Amino acid sequence: MAHKTKVQTYELATRFDSNQFPFETTAEVEKLTAEIIGQDKAVRAMNFGLKVKQEGYHLFLVGPTGTGKTTYAHSKVLEHAKELETPSDWVYVYNFQTPDRPIAIPLPPGKGVIFQRHMERLLEEITIEIDKALTSKQYEFQKADLIQLHGEEVDKKWEYLEEIAYKERFLIEKSETGIAAIPLNDREEPHDDESYHKLTKEEQQEIIEKTRELNKELSTIVRAIQSAEKVLDEKLEELEKSSVYENIHFLVKELQDEYASNEKVVAYLTEVEKDVIASRNDFHEQEKEEEDLMSLLSPKQEKKDEHRYQVNVFVNHNNTDGAPVVHESNPTYGNLFGKFEYKGSFGTVVTNFTLMKPGAFHISAGGYCIIQASELVSNPYSWLALKRMMKTGELRIENPLEETGVTATSGLKPEPIPVQTKLILIGTHQLYHILSEYDEDFGKYFKVKVDFDVQMERNVEHCMKYASFVASYCANNDLRHFTRDALARVIDYSTRLAEDQSKLSTSFHHVTEILVEANFWADEENSQFVEKSHVRKALKERFTRNNLIEEKIKEMIDDGTIMIKTDGEVVGQINGLSVLNTGGYSFGQPNKITARTYIGPKGIVNIDRESYLSGPIHAKGLMILTGFIQGEFAQDGPLPLSASITFEQSYDMIDGDSASSTELYAILSSLSNIPIKQGIAVTGSVNQWGEIQPIGGVNEKIEGFFYTCKARGFTGGQGVIIPIQNKKNLMLRNEVIEAIEKGLFTIWAVSTISEGIEILTGITAGERDQLGKFEEGTVFHRVEKRLHTMISTFRRGKVIAKEKV
Q: Where are the beta strands (DSSP E) in 689-771?
């Protein structure tokens, strides 16, 4: 049986024949474009998602890190974006009707900056023209005429009043306290107290009556004069307005004609003209010169809208070729949806519409935005606002923290911008499933799943594409090119990463690390190209750099701190294999597994589980063992079997079922009292029918036990038992293969527990005959015999207990 299950040397690894390459070095190979290797399904899904225009067909790229998702997405989106039209620029302008709601105006691509310059030039010309209008001789003449006419009218009224007063022997006197009618004496002088008291009562009463009448007339005339002054002010204001209008209207009209096709620009310019005329004194140099120092320093109310004629070029596609593509690496709310910037002003912070800054979705509107999904969902405000944007089709600039009082409020509610951005999220399968499961809106908006595989077929076509990839990477990163022999070793390393002899890995970031490190060693030797020896050197050095923990464990095994036997035979003890990952480096480690069996009703007790050092999958594996033993040996009744099993010297959490067959071998050994060869380690899970099932990390597990045996000294009988399904996963190191070729080490691949127990014990497992009995002397016969003895003993114990009662 051991001979039948022995893995042949040619099955231990597959090596690429470099003679299949029609070139000597990768310098002769055509470089890759936007193509990605071995991801046909993902490429088709990507093309579909980028081209479909209906709502909700955003893309979610899923796959492990290092499969080239991000790089491919960026290059593919750029390629597709060039075929599309460049979207509009967007500018924000002041809203003269509702100042806290800035107006968004779309303009043809590249025209936003031009419109901003036009407005700056318009304001410069308006300032000059207003100054001209209000200092021109014609304006001064018209103003003087109005003032003169007003003066003449006022003079006439005063002359009329003075004539009436004189006839009545009164004098009209103007002073700082007001205007009064003063009676005159015979000498035509104002009455004093002495002259007034000399008058008779009748004369005094007459003066009082005349004074009252004159005061009435005086009030009427004063009101008429005030009304005339008001009319004068209105006429002067109208004169100013008409003069300013006549001087600036042609400038505004000229710009309106240029933007006649844009109704929002025309309407804005009309409002600008009205506001300029109303605020004409702000443009008049004479008025500006009259401002004193304090007026310049004071935050006057009228200066709060000093930016109202400016244009905020919010989205500028002046240098955009085709549709925009934005890759937002930090998807905070502000970076995605825009934000208000603030500046200090007299002990506080203020903002205005010119301080609004766009987000990635503003810039990518009409194009594509690429975001890492994990970064996006870690910003809850961003995720909620994203769904709101996709629902409404509008982008609003808001401060999500304003309601909490954490940041200053802006008071601005800018007009939203319509958006049609194609969103590309990049994440893991786990995150995709979480969002699908717990966010009911996710499936409505992300209907295109672009699934990246971690493997591709190892065939000539894909190996040639690998060569193109290496050629491109070397050219783009200033590395030496690889010889075809060196490239063949890179392909073998890729297969090792894929853990399948018929596959290549698509985790290109692991491959590029070897390219860089092999180039370093070629540089150290001043070699023109990267040779096969440099690739091997890179792999060896990488192994040596990262295996400190592995070396420490080996030392503890060698000095007996960790108790592992690699020769001899022991009942109920076996070497299991596990894989440890130290962050970027995985290695195999042998673990002693022990089992003790005895009479009792408890069944199999997992000591690790009872001590909370066992995960649920490992616990499941132990339950499967119970199913196998009960199904195989308890056909006539329940077994009074108790067994304890554990990973010795294990102090960390154990999970997975890859040791379940190993544990079953230990229990069978304990039950049958047949020793197990300690030079053989085992890996593989088992089902209730005793069939061996495949596991992961087979290469690391084999090599871990190999190096332990090498350190202890080879005996010729050492090796590892693996599931037969894992033969295709073998990509062992050359050192291991050479030892196997020399007969120092052996790999067996088994499909059942029976095959495995025969290798471990050197005794036939046994099969039931027509009477349902196992052949005498076989492992299973001895197990069954032991179980029958346990049953008899258990029953006798129960009878004795009853008799005592």
A: 692-693, 719-723, 746-750
Q: Are residues 689 and 582 in the same domain?
A: yes
Q: From CA 779, how far away is CA 787, in angstroms rounded?
A: 12
CATH at 483 = 1.10.8.60
Distance of CA 44 to the CA centre of its chain: 24
298 domain-assigned: no
Q: For residue 655, how many other CB atoms are within 10 A of its CB?
A: 15
- Rounded Cα distance, 353 and 93, in Å: 7
3-state secondary structure of 452: coil
d(CA 374, CA 789): 60
CA nearest neighbour of 709 among 736, 674, 738, 734: 736
Do 433 and 467 share a domain, yes or no? Answer: no
Domain extent at residue 487: 19-33+454-546
Residue 107 dihedral angles phi and psi, to the nearest 5° = -140, 155
pLDDT digits (tens, 9 = 90+) for 733-781: 999 999 999 999 999 999 999 999 999 999 999 888 888 888 898 999 9
Q: Sign of torsion, CA 541 545 550 554?
A: positive
Q: Establish if 115 belongs to a structural domain.
A: no
Please tell me the distance from the alpha carbon of residue 27 to that of residue 475, in angstroms, as a whole number. Answer: 8
Beta strands at 59-62 and 448-451: parallel, antiparallel or unpaired: parallel
Q: Which two tokens stand for residue 274?
A: 């009205």
Judge whether 118 lies within some domain.
Answer: no
Q: Based on the domain organization, do 608 and 575 belong to the same domain?
A: yes
Sign of CA dihedral 319, 325, 328, 334: positive
Q: Are 712 and 566 in contact (CB under 8 A)?
A: yes
Residues 541 and 602 in one domain: no
Interhelix angle 69-81/40-51, nearest 10 degrees: 40
Cα–Cα dist 782/776, whole Å: 8
Residues 347 and 493 in one domain: no
Six-digit token pair at 769? Answer: 């005959």
Contacts (Cβ under 8 Å, ≥6 apart) of 669: 571, 572, 573, 574, 595, 675, 676, 760, 761
423 vs 397: CA distance, rounded Å: 19
- The residue among 280 and 778 whose pLDDT is bigger is 778
CA angle 256/262/263 to nearest 5° reads: 85
Please enumerate in sequence order all residues whose Cβ is within 8 A of that of 763, keeping only pairs 6 or more positions apart, or say none.
674, 757, 777, 778, 779
**CA-based nearest residue to 425, from 391, 448, 394, 393:** 448
Closest of 623, 608, 548, 598 to residue 576, by C-alpha: 608
CA–chain centroid gap for 532, Å, is 39
* Domain count for the chain: 4
Which of 419, 452, 485 is the last residue in one of the domains? 452
665-722 pLDDT, tens digit per residue, is 999 999 899 999 999 999 999 998 889 999 999 999 999 999 999 988 999 999 999 9
The helix-helix angle for 263-278 and 201-258 (nearest 10°) equals: 150
One domain, residues 570 and 685? yes
Residues 364-413 pLDDT 10s: 999 999 999 999 999 888 999 999 999 999 998 887 766 555 555 567 89
Tokens for 198? 């000399």
Same domain for 327 and 351: yes
| Residue 31 DSSP one-character state | P
